[in-house]
Amino acid sequence: MEQRYATSPEHVPGMDTAELRKRYLVQDLFVDDEVKAVYTHHDRVVLVGLSPVTVALELGTFPEIASEYFFEHREAGIINVGGAGTITVDGTEYALATGSCLYIGRGARAVVMASSGATGGADAARFYVFSAPAHTAYPTTLVAAGEGIKRELGDPLTSNRRTLNQYIHENGVKSCQVVMGVTQLHPGSMWNTMPAHTHDRRTECYLYFDLPADARVIHIMGEPSETRHLVVGNREAIVSPSWSVHSGVGSASYTFVWAMAGENQAFDDMDGFPIADMR
Question: What confidence tens digit (pLDDT) does each residue in 203-221 have?
């Protein structure tokens, strides 16, 4: 498990491109037949990528979380960003098509992930795990792709028409603090969030996927008065601290997973910034 320590806005002006990428961009989460994990000290979030190409993979514990098993003190939302697959939680199997979400609550012990009939890496399931500490147990719950609460946002005239699917949130699947969903851009739209915003009470992570191999997303981060950008590829994640804006524009169509943990679960708890006020 890779450790990433928390940063403050004062650090950003002195960072070059290499350091910005090292601290906020998560690459290589999805390696065939491996479990890859990153612990960020922003709200104690753990990101995990599991790629069961030829063998099933278990989400076990890590020394860094000081637990007998992964979910002893944690909960997680899991989105399948690859081909069809299954997640077995303490003997109960759940089938996840691309874009489906499984919430696993505190106390689950044996969690095993597998691909469904994959014959190669391109067909394999790729499970993206967003985990945060949990104070109590909520039941494991599956939400099929497209079955969450939908919110239509943006406008074609500003190139940000998008469908936001809310899966784990205060009016949907119950959790202690994880909030999670998937946003899909409409044809011809490339901006995912503009005007941009912060939410000073929650850390948010983006995972970009369904992006062609030769395309990239230009992700904007930092304080509104001191922004920077990161060039992001397919199935790469961004750690966005509570003080940072998080917005992006792609060179091709894409989808992204958004997930948050922190003080509350209110979707509208955010502070917007008109683009004319950003620097």
Answer: 999 999 999 999 999 999 9
